[in-house]
Amino acid sequence: MSLPEPLAEIVDDFAAVDGQQKLQLLLEFSRELPDLPAELEQAAMEPVPECQSPLFLSVDATDRERVRLHFSAPPEAPTTRGFASILHQGLDGQSAKAILDVPADFYSALGLAEAVSPLRLRGMSAMLTRIKRHLTD
Question: CATH number for the domain including 114?
């Protein structure tokens, strides 16, 4: 699987733990989602309606060698925030090509299918799909 190094490390972190520890790790990621920069308002961001909870994203591909990603999700949506944080930590600052090369189903390697509903996992897939769409427009 072709993953940027930061995302590959996250996948390895999830592979190293089992069951409830995976959920705990996802919760830790949810707490690490950075706040939006002052100049970016949620109203200007793209909603991702496939997510179970409100999620908004912004893709700045002005510099295709260093794509900037921003996510907004409420604190009461830890699963959605966790997925957004994984994508942020794994892909923010990567090149457009590296992001486009990430397999659409990379999240299956996180091993969360037994702990998180398929509907929630599709939300993570939708986030990645929307990011990629911005990079191909």
Answer: 3.90.1010.10
For 120, phi then psi, to 5°, come to -65, -40
- Kindly state the tokens that stand for 62: 């002005």
User: What is the Cα–Cα distance from 86 to 94, expressed in whole angstroms?
Assistant: 14
Q: Which domain holds residue 107?
A: 5-136
The contacts of residue 21 (CB under 8 Å, 6+ apart) are none
Please tell me whether the overall predicted TM-score, pTM, comes out greater than 0.90 for this model.
yes
The token duo for 106 is 């990379």
* Per-residue pLDDT tens over the stretch 37-63: 988 988 889 999 998 899 999 999 999
Max CA separation in the chain (angstroms): 40
Residue 36: burial class (beta carbons within 10 Å; 0-12, 13-18, 19+): middle
Indicate the number of domains in the chain. Answer: 1
SS3 content of the chain, % helix, strand, coil (to 5): 50, 10, 40
